[in-house]
Amino acid sequence: MNTHVVDIPDDPAELAGWLDRHLVGLDLAELVAELSAVHQDVTSNTEPLEILLGDHRAAVLEQGLSALPRVSLRKLLRHPRLLFELQDQVLLFGGPYWDRIAPASPQQETLVHRGTIKVNALFESQSSKPEHDDSDSRIVKLPWWRRPTVFLTSAAATIAVALLVFQQLSKPSEPPPWGWNKPDALADQGQPNLYLNQLADSAEDWFNRRPEDRDAVTRRVEQFRQGCSRLIAAPHRPLSPEDRAWLVERCRAWTTKLDAELEALQNGRDPLQVRDQVDMTIRKLIDTLRTKARERSLGFLRLSG
């Protein structure tokens, strides 16, 4: 099974589209399970979906999650079970946008074929009943996987691919992944102390760039926050079960602090003050990792002696 949380885009601007594609894909359950493990999603503490969407519901159904504020988008990630409810809304009431981004695959074609048979049987069974007026609120559109427009013709597919290539070429170059988002940041090391020091070294990347404006600080914090999610989901094979549990617990505490600073940014707090506060949080987590590494190093030396 693929691990989807490690594919969360580094660029917050790409996160909405990434989630959109999962909402109309076949692996949403896997993503929700992974996010729930990362964030310990508790349904009883989750605000209803209609409150989270608020006045943006109609825009989301027509344009996708790019119409949702970043604060609300992060809430969806922290309470991923809401994605199931949102998927229902999209499948029932979503506009043409969702048809355009729905991926075509042999598995989905099989589902469409089966669904078509069921729909035809349903229509035949209902043919003798009076039709409802189009304005009846109980009448809903067919879900995306039963709509013929989901599956593009070969010519349209060619145009779509050309458009995608053009968009990729015209995008400004992105800085390489940093921190715990680097491909080798979570590479297994032979000894626990080496692994923990490796995590601390990667966290030091935070201090390599010092953004000052609100958008840049927000993006930098969000990127580090995404690295925390990747760290929580990692297997941490060099560590003992006790140390793995300790590390995951500490990661969740760090992400809570980062989330609070992101909320403060959205509420108008000075970005330099937020950056300084995040500096303190990351410096403490680095010290914590190095302290644990020293403890494991001493333990290894005692066992070797």
Polypeptide structure, described:
There is one protein chain. By secondary structure, this protein is mainly α. The protein folds into 2 domains: 5-170, no CATH class; 179-300. Helix content is 63%, strand content 0%. The chain starts with 11 loop residues before the first helix and ends with a helix.
Q: Which helices and strands appear, and what pairs or packs with what?
A:
Layout: H1 12-23, H2 28-39, H3 49-53, H4 57-63, H5 70-78, H6 82-93, H7 96-101, H8 106-126, H9 154-170, H10 192-203, H11 214-233, H12 241-266, H13 271-304
Count, helices? 13
Largest sheet: none
User: Could you tell me the number of beta strands?
Assistant: 0
Beta-strand content bin: under 5%
Q: From the alpha-carbon coordinates, what is the Rg to the nearest angstrom?
A: 23 Å
| Unreliable stretches | 131-140, 142-172
Structural class, by secondary structure, is: mainly alpha
Seen as an oligomer or otherwise, the chain set is single chain
Q: What are the key terms here?
A:
305 residues; mainly alpha; 2 domains; 13 helices; globular
Task: Describe the structure concisely for a colleague.
With 305 residues, the protein is mainly alpha-helical. The protein has helices spanning 12-23, 28-39, 49-53, 57-63, 70-78, 82-93, 96-101, 106-126, 154-170, 192-203, 214-233, 241-266, 271-304.
